């Protein structure tokens, strides 16, 4: 990460939750029905290789860790193992060098607040990711959202407490429904690592939580996460902004939250009602989650298919245009373009890809807020076309007659085209998993489906 002319944010006070580690098993007898349903997230072990499905993503994310590996999410029981084993977090850096920040652990389990309380928020984020692997024994669970030995909700992450205050939704002043949504939103939200604050997690809501507001924040700070190696564009990355999209949705206006749809009330064998903690697809429990507002499951499914097709069609068009724009920028640079030629098209690429990413990185956008998704992608499409038109004029001026584009037939072909040695990266990670993670880290870090 880099930042130019950093703007230091004023400090907001907060209290850290769970100074002592509370294992998830602590709730086994205290909330048995909820605990048992949480355990079933172990069955949610299937995942899809999103880079294999859409190889063009490797070009868009070239230069970032996302070009190495990107899978669809799994159940909460896999939160620790998935982040420990992904190629994105790499291996331990050489002595004296800086690796991935420990901030990559932030949303993965209740040991995080414990370590933040011990090290301080910036002390935690200043550690290497691999430094704290031995401390992460509990995957996403009870005390991430609840106070110890209580059903009372809490925001256990300081960045979430600050963010809700920024948008005038302080946690302690909200009703139970909004508090439930906020506990989910402390992780299902976009964020970045603040380079001027030791890479601690920050939610960029100073101006608001829309894509435009966050873009304004980043542009004002002249912030970028990496320089794209092909086009030299100063890039931004969105990360699963479900809370943002939901907060402006029809569901939110009607008072339906993440809990309503994904953790509905069930009835145990003893007749006692409890909140389902499997956190699955709402339509799988239509009667409990949806029937209060929707008459027909088939009708909802049909509407979702239409939304998904519209969003998928738009996103594919944007992705293909952005691939071409990145390589057309490269052709311009190779032909001797100067920065004063390239400022406008690079900003068009930056802004287009930001809106595209803010849409497609949100899990279930076609259900949560399809209207905003289509609007984002429509704007991204216009900006991508603008970038290519601007680059076309530059290429014409520089007498560039042909641009070479990459082979998009497979993720392997694209990874090779952008200079990733996947064989080396995969071998290094496997060796690290076998020699360190499986031998010295807690069992949660080496968990595989159905173990």
Sheet with most strands: 2 strands, antiparallel
N- to C-terminal distance: 37 Å
What count of helical segments does DSSP give? 19
The helix-strand sequence is EHHHHHHHHEEHEEEHHHEEHHHHHHH
Give the overall shape, derived from the CA principal axes: globular
Average pLDDT, rounded to a whole number, is 92
Structural classification: mainly alpha
Strand segment count: 8
Strand content: under 5%
Rg estimate, integer Å: 22 Å
How would you write the strand order of the largest sheet?
A: 1-4
Low-confidence stretches: 1-19
Structural summary, described in words:
By secondary structure, this protein is mainly α. 45% of the residues lie in helices and 4% in strands. It has 19 helices and eight strands. The strands form four sheets. A two-stranded antiparallel sheet has the order 1-4. Strand 7 and strand 8 form a beta hairpin. It is globular, with a radius of gyration of 22 Å. The chain starts with a strand and ends in an 11-residue tail after the last helix. The relative contact order is 0.14.
Write the layout of secondary structure elements.
Elements: E1 2-3, H1 32-39, H2 50-53, H3 56-60, H4 79-85, H5 111-119, H6 121-125, H7 158-166, H8 176-185, E2 192-194, E3 200-202, H9 211-221, E4 223-224, E5 226-227, E6 234-235, H10 242-247, H11 250-253, H12 258-262, E7 265-267, E8 273-275, H13 286-289, H14 297-334, H15 339-360, H16 365-368, H17 370-397, H18 411-417, H19 422-440
Antiparallel strand pairs: 1-4, 2-3, 5-6, 7-8
Helix pairs in contact: 14-15, 14-17, 15-17
